[in-house]
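Structure first, sequence second, as always.
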């Protein structure tokens, strides 16, 4: 038998090339998507802010229940002249405890309204008795329906409301330290200046 010519021998020694399956590209595409989303989030003007679809819109309804012995928060109160705050809180929420002294100080210079979120009545009253009650009026939200209408993800969240009852700013998280001084306070001062 005669030896094979060199070109044919080299063709036999070549291995078949694996086909590139679209499923092999899926992890790369998913990673690229997450990387793009992370890059966008980091490049925003304020990567810590939580956007709200309700900015510049009329505040949603606040419900018709309150805690015993407390003033009922009404929708009309949100439309009274002047800047005011609406704070979603709960006794079971540790960050709510941390921001409570800030709310107490703010309540000395402006109306601060509270919405007690998914809280047993006794626990909420105990919290206010122990830490003080900074709220000029309260609403309760035992099922979380009001929070959904306001776009609240978890307490605490604080909204700055203007004299027409429109939401000017949403702050997700406790009003403490740098978050309070660098993010919330400038927005509050801007709202107060616009109201004058």
């Amino acid at each position: 038998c005669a030896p094979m010519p060199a070109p044919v021998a080299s063709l036999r020694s070549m291995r078949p090339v694996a086909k590139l399956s679209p499923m092999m590209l899926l992890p790369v595409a998913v990673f690229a998507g997450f990387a793009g989303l992370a890059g966008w989030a980091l490049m925003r003007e304020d990567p810590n802010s939580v956007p709200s679809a309700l900015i510049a819109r009329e505040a949603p309804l606040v419900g018709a229940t309150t805690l015993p012995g407390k003033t009922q928060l009404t929708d009309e109160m949100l439309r009274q002249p002047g800047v005011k705050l609406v704070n979603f809180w709960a006794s079971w929420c540790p960050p709510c405890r941390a921001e409570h002294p800030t709310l107490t100080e703010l309540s000395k210079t402006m109306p601060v309204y509270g919405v007690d979120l998914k809280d047993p009545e006794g626990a909420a009253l105990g919290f206010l008795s122990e830490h003080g009650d900074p709220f000029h009026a309260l609403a309760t939200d035992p099922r979380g329906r009001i929070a959904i209408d306001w776009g609240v993800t978890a307490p605490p969240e604080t909204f700055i409301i203007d004299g027409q009852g429109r939401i000017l700013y949403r702050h997700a998280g406790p009003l403490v330290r740098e978050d309070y001084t660098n993010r919330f306070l400038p927005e509050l001062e801007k709202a107060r200046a616009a109201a004058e």
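Margin note: The chain has seven helices and five strands.
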